[in-house]
Amino acid sequence: MTDLPTGWEWARLDEVAEVRLGRQRSPKNHTGTQMRPYLRAANVGWNGLKLDDVKEMNFTDEEVEVYRLRPGDIVLSEASGSPGEVGKPALWNDEIEGCCFQNTLLRVRSWGPDPKYLLNLLRFEAMRGAFVEHSRGVGIHHIGAGRLSSWRIPLPSLAEQRRVVALLDGQLSGLESGLDALLLSGRRLRTLTKAILAEAIPLNLPGNWRCVSVGEAGAVDLGRQRHPDWHTGPHMRPYLRVANVFEGRIDVSDVMEMDFPPEVFEKFRLREGDILLNEGQSPEYLGRPAIYRGAPEEVAFTNSLLRFRAGPGVDPEWALLVFRRHMHTGRYIRELRITTNIAHLSAGRFKAVEFPVPPLDEQREIVARVNEQLAGVERLRKEIEDGERRIAALRKSLLAEAFSGRLVPQDPDDEPASELLARIRAERAVRIPKQRNRAPRRKKELPAPPTRVTGDDYQQETLPL
C-alpha cells in the first residue's frame, strides 16, 4: 500500500493514538489492598476478548489512572511464541469495571480516528504477518511499543472511516458465521473420531485380549536433547521434533539438522514402523502420535518426542491406533506434569500406561476396518480446511480493499484526512504542556525487579482462516 486515494494521508500510529505497554508484573503486587482485574495476552482472541479467566493484581490509584482501560481502547498481544499471534488485537468495551492491562499487551487509544477502523487495520496487519516481520526476540517474538508507535497507517477522512467500518461489519460478520459453522463441523468430526476409536478398543477387553503396559508392549525412548554446540559440526543429520509430528502424519516441510556423531546417531535413528509421540504439548494434544514410514531417510529425533518401537506380537499400525485412542479419550492427561503451561508426558509415566493386545490377526482386522472409517472422516476434515482457506482468502482480500481505498467510494465533500491530522495535532498541543528546556533532576530509582513471563500469560491460538 503506497499510493493512496485523494483525501487520504499516511500517518504514524503515535500521531493519531497513544500507544502504551501494560504494567509489569511483580511478586509484591500479587496481593494488596487495591486488587484490580487486568487483561493479559491470554485474554485476547482473534474473534474478540476472552474474559472467562481474568486475573487480579494490586494497582495503586496513580497506576490505575495510567493503566485503566476505557471504552474504545484497543489491546494487542505485544509478544507471542507463535509468530502468527504477534499484534493480535481486540476492542475493549468496558466489559469489566476498572480493568487494567499487563505488559504482555499494548494499548492503542485513539485521539481522533474511529477505533473500529484502527482495530480492523491492526488486525489486517497482524493477519498478514506484517508485525512479526518487524518483531524481535528468539523463541518469543516482541513487536514493542516503539515499533508499534512508528507504524505507518493509511488514513482516510473520518466519514470514510465510518463507511468502511459499517461495510466491514456486515461483510466480516457473514464470514465469521461461515467460519463458526465450519469450526462446529470440525468439533463434531473430532467427537466422531473419538467414538470410532473408543468403540474399536473398548475399556472392557474381550476375553482373548491381553492387557500389558506400553513398556511391556515395546521399547520406549526419549529423543536427543538439543544444544547450541551441535548446531554445526562434521556430522550434520536431519531430525524430527514436535513441530513435525501431527496425528497420524509427519510433516517434513521444515526438517532441521544438528551434529550427530555416528554412534550417537545410531541410538536416535528412526526405523520404519517407529511411532513418535509428542512429549510436550498443550494437554489436549499430549501424546499426539504418528508412524514413521521411512521419509525422510536417515533421520533422528529430539527430546520433544517419545519413540515407541513395537515388540513381538504387536503390529505398529495397531500401536498407532491404541495411542490415538489414548489421546482422544484423555488418557494421557492422568499422567501429565505441567511446566510453564506446557504439559509433559515423561517416558517413565508413558511406559506404565495400559496397552491392550488382541491376537495379531485381529489387530490387523481392526486396523483395516477403523482406517477405512477414519479415511471418511479425513475427507470431511480436508473439505472443512478448504472452506477455512477460502474464508481466509476472502477476509484478506476484503481488508486489503478496505485499506487501499477501494472498498467504499470517496466523497469529495468529506473533510480530508490532512485536516483531521491537523486538528489532532492542535488538540494535543493544548492538552500536553510544553516541556522545560532542562528536565528536573530526579531521584535515582532502583531498577524494577525482574519478572518471569510464563505460558499462562500467553495463549497460543490458531489464526482464524
From TrEMBL:
Q: Which residues does the UniProt record annotate as the domain Type I restriction modification DNA specificity?
A: 5-169
Residues annotated as signal peptide: none
Residue spans making up a coiled coil are 360-397
- What stretches pass through the bilayer? none
Q: Does the keyword Membrane apply?
A: no
Subunit structure as annotated in this protein's UniProt entry: The methyltransferase is composed of M and S polypeptides.
Q: What top-tier enzyme class does this entry carry?
A: hydrolase
SUPFAM superfamilies (UniProt xref): DNA methylase specificity domain
UniProt GO MF annotations: endonuclease activity; hydrolase activity
Q: What is this protein called?
A: Restriction endonuclease subunit S
Concerning Pfam families, the annotation shows:
Methylase_S (PF01420)
- Which residues lie within the region annotated Disordered? 431-465
Instruction: Report whether Nuclease shows up as a keyword of the record.
Output: yes
| EC number from the UniProt entry | 3.1.21.-
- Which family does the UniProt entry place this protein in? Belongs to the type-I restriction system S methylase family.
The biased composition feature labelled Basic residues covers 431-444
Q: Source species, please?
A: Micromonospora cathayae
Under the heading PANTHER family, the entry gives:
TYPE I RESTRICTION ENZYME ECOKI SPECIFICITY SUBUNIT (PTHR43140:SF1), TYPE-1 RESTRICTION ENZYME ECOKI SPECIFICITY PROTEIN (PTHR43140)
Keywords of this entry: Coiled coil, DNA-binding, Endonuclease, Hydrolase, Nuclease, Restriction system
